[in-house]
Amino acid sequence: MFTASLSLEALQKGAEPARREYKGTEDVYRQQWRWDKSFVATHCVDCYPGNCPYRVYVKDGVILYEEQAGTLPIIEKGVPDLNPMGCQKGAAWSRLLYSPERVLHPLKRAGKRGDGKWQQITWEQALTEIADHILDAIQEVGPE
Fold it and tell me: How far apart are the first and last CA of the chain?
């Protein structure tokens, strides 16, 4: 994660601009952005038009960067194509993937709705409770 900070000292009259010490071309080479592999992937399948292609760059198994990939075919000449296709949800997907707020385990409400109280449960318990509620709904109102 990149952290930026500001200082008013740099705006004072006579202040020198910040400069990075340059030792040679090796410094520039070492600062280049590198990745292990890149590929075309997609996410946000629940939006329209959905399945937008993104070029994903990975280093050490972690997504470093994503950009819209212009890989969609031209359907008809003379008509604007959809390249590149993507939205803000797709562009922010990898940030959400590594967010500390991401839910990694099933949670069950532990208080009243709106209290924000949750308890962690097992996947088996979560799936069993969901299946039980679906079966109850089918018995009460039918399968349609």
Answer: 48
List, as one string, the DSSP characters of the chain: -------GGGGSTTPPPP------HHHHHHTS---SEEEEEEE-TTSSS--EEEEEEEETTEEEEEEE---PPP-STTS----S---HHHHTHHHHHT-TT---S-EEE-SSTTS--EEE--HHHHHHHHHHHHHHHHHHH---
Write down the pLDDT at residue 122: 97
Structural contact between residues 90 and 44, judged by C-beta atoms closer than 8 angstroms:
yes
Q: Where are the domains of the chain?
A: 33-102, 103-144
Q: How sure is the predictor about 18, in pLDDT bands with cuts at 50, 70 and 90?
A: low
Rounded to two decimals, what is the model's pTM?
A: 0.54
Furthest-apart CA atoms within the chain: distance in Å = 79
> Which tokens in the block code for residue 26?
């090796």
36 vs 77: CA distance, rounded Å: 37
Between CA 84 and CA 70 the distance in angstroms is 4
Q: Write down the residue that tokens 């679906």 correspond to.
A: 134
pLDDT digits (tens, 9 = 90+) for 39-61: 888 876 667 777 788 888 998 88
